[in-house]
Amino acid sequence: MIIRRIKRQFKLLFGVVILIFLISCSIFAFLLTAHRPTEQNLLESRLPPCWHSTGSREHILGTDYLGRDVWANILYGGRFTFLVAFSASLSSALVGTVIGLIAGYFGGLIDLLLTRIIDIQLAIPAIVLALTIAALAKPGLENLIIALAITSWPSYARLIRALAKSLSRQTFVEAARSIGANSLRILFHHLLPNCFYLVLVQLTLETARIVLTESALSFLGLGLPPPYPSWGRMLAENRLFLTVDYWVTLFPGLAIMLTVLGINLLGDGLRDFLDPRLRRML
By the 8 A CB rule, do 211 and 256 touch? Predict the structure, then answer.
């Protein structure tokens, strides 16, 4: 039954295939290229991809203006992109879900205070907030993850608060209270499992947004500092050669596009598969 439903979810399967391919290429980058992302050779500067007549088989996707292999930079850059995106998404999901459960379940002054904090942060554009935090903090992997996580938790909190507020009035919650279950048990043993599918779907959508935000920050010089390879910085460093050496910006851009596409397809498929209101339609 479950396998048959999964087979009907083309978006889910296609998204999973794309992500497995991209993540596998990033993890096993050392097997797919003999070059290092920081390796420079000015004698091989701006070589076109291997299918061009002047291209080289040693550089499948060509080289940039410093002679760095584009394929190697994409592979190793994917490692840090996925690391930052997944770490920031999981951190923000944890914080936002807990805050949303507390606000929705307890209500009253706690709900009012937490909701106003959420509204204030949501009033600030996420990219502006991320730029401000990244500019003020010391450049580094950990600070970038923290900056991106801070911009994401309100979206989880708002969704989970609304659902928890509705669920807290349901019969099963009243039954749990009547047998003496404390608030902690009701929050994490009764409300959280019923919110899990929503958290999972939101996690995928926020991960896609974080990938774009991280690329934008790297493009502006506020993302991962050198020598970390980054897709966004590849676009920034080679943008002046866009009209003459298309490969130095085309392939990093395609990597970002495929990553976001795969995550969004996964999120849409998970929503259709896990949402109990849509199960009867599958």
Answer: yes
